[in-house]
Design a protein that fits this description.
3-stranded antiparallel sheet
Length: 181
């Protein structure tokens, strides 16, 4: 259960910017609201006011499609977030990252996937998997496997389910089960 109580509107804005910076692309307002309510003990109208102010200042942008509003952080908002996010409690930042992983998939149009299989000395194979977006690479993995068939299966799975692969690596590296949901 959420137990974080922000101290003022500035802290709420930093929280929203950090949350949106953690999302790799647009997020529908309903999902944004769910992530906020999962992480904040007492959601008030101040969140709506903070989001409006961030939008008015150009730190957050949005678009409406079929009466659904999608939010995304702007480059200036990202710069502010990167400078101030450490003022938020570390536990809250971890919880937001977990929440975002449950709602956001890596299968949107702005993600670019690439892969490469190469034979290594000794007869095994190297598989390289890369995922990037407009901000650059966010996943690069190179793993040795014993056969070309196994390498091809890994590449095919990565192309078919990049979100699952990404969350699997996050789980493996952190040990946090939340990444698997």
């Amino acid at each position: 259960m959420a137990s974080y109580y922000p101290s003022d509107i500035t802290e709420i804005k930093i929280f929203i910017l950090f949350l949106l910076d953690s999302v790799r692309g647009p997020i529908e307002s309903a999902d944004l609201d769910r992530i906020i309510s999962e992480n904040i003990a007492d959601v008030t109208l101040a969140y709506s006011e903070a989001l409006t102010e961030l939008t008015d200042r150009g730190h957050v942008i949005y678009d409406e499609i079929d009466r659904h509003r999608y939010y995304m952080i702007s480059d200036t908002g990202r710069a502010v977030s990167r400078e101030l996010y450490t003022t938020l409690p570390e536990l809250l930042r971890d919880d937001v990252t977990e929440s975002v992983s449950r709602y956001v998939a890596l299968t949107n149009d702005s993600i670019t996937l690439s892969s490469r299989i190469a034979e290594r000395e000794g007869g095994d194979f190297s598989v390289e998997l890369i995922a990037s977006d407009e901000r650059g690479e966010f996943l690069r993995v190179n793993i040795a496997v014993p056969s070309r068939d196994e390498a091809a299966r890994m590449v095919e799975n990565f192309k078919r389910n990049p979100s699952g692969v990404y969350r699997g690596f996050l789980f493996s590296l952190t040990g946090r089960l939340e990444y698997l949901h």
